[in-house]
Amino acid sequence: MPKPVIDHERYVPALINFVGNKLAAGASNAYRREFGIGVTEWRILSLLAVEGTCSAQHICQFFDLDKALVSRTTRSLVENGVVTVTAQEGKNKRAIVLTKVGRSLHDRVIKLALQREKVLLAGFTKDETDVLIDMLRRLLERAPAVNAIQANKGRLTNR
């Protein structure tokens, strides 16, 4: 009996990863070329535009990003006048907020981001897009259970 191998044409985790990698690389190239920022900067800007103010910890949790990456990126955004960071009253956290420069940058980048999404979904009907979004959300909900699976002395366990 042949040993199992991954069929990369049908293995869902790989396909999701391939799509995500291609989209992130393309976005990073486009945003750097057009606006001088990368995908991580754009993610932070997009979250701040929605929420108004965030802590670095919230950004890390929301996007599942490394603390050091968020810290470096935030520092760069501060140096470029895109965000400000201030101590939150009565808390041991700092508030990150878009500046007017940051809001203007967001408003320029979002046009390209939404155009990229439009092109990505051009082959889908509105109903298919809604189903895709629902499925992706359900997959996100399953991710912690998937990530809890460990190899334990040759046996797979779901802790």
Mean pLDDT: 93
CATH class of the domain at 40-145: Mainly Alpha
**What is the total tally of β strands?**
5
The major β-sheet equals: 3 strands, antiparallel
Give the uncertain stretches in residue-range form: none
Report how far apart the termini are.
Answer: 30 Å
Give a topology summary.
Layout: H1 12-35, H2 39-51, E1 53-54, H3 56-63, H4 67-79, E2 83-87, E3 94-98, H5 100-120, H6 126-147, E4 149-152, E5 155-158
Antiparallel strand pairs: 1-3, 2-3, 4-5
Helix pairs in contact: 1-5, 2-5, 3-4
Describe the protein.
- The protein is an alpha+beta fold and about 160 residues long.
- The chain has a domain at about 40-145: Orthogonal Bundle (Arc Repressor Mutant, subunit A), CATH 1.10.10.10.
- The chain is about 65% helix and about 15% strand.
- The chain has six helices and five strands; from the N terminus they run H-H-E-H-H-E-E-H-H-E-E.
- Strands 1-3-2 form a three-stranded antiparallel β-sheet. A two-stranded antiparallel ribbon has the order 4-5.
- Strand 4 (about 150) and strand 5 (about 155-159) form a beta hairpin.
- It is globular and about 60 Å long.
- It starts with 11 loop residues before the first helix and ends with a strand.
- The model has no long low-confidence stretch (mean pLDDT about 95).
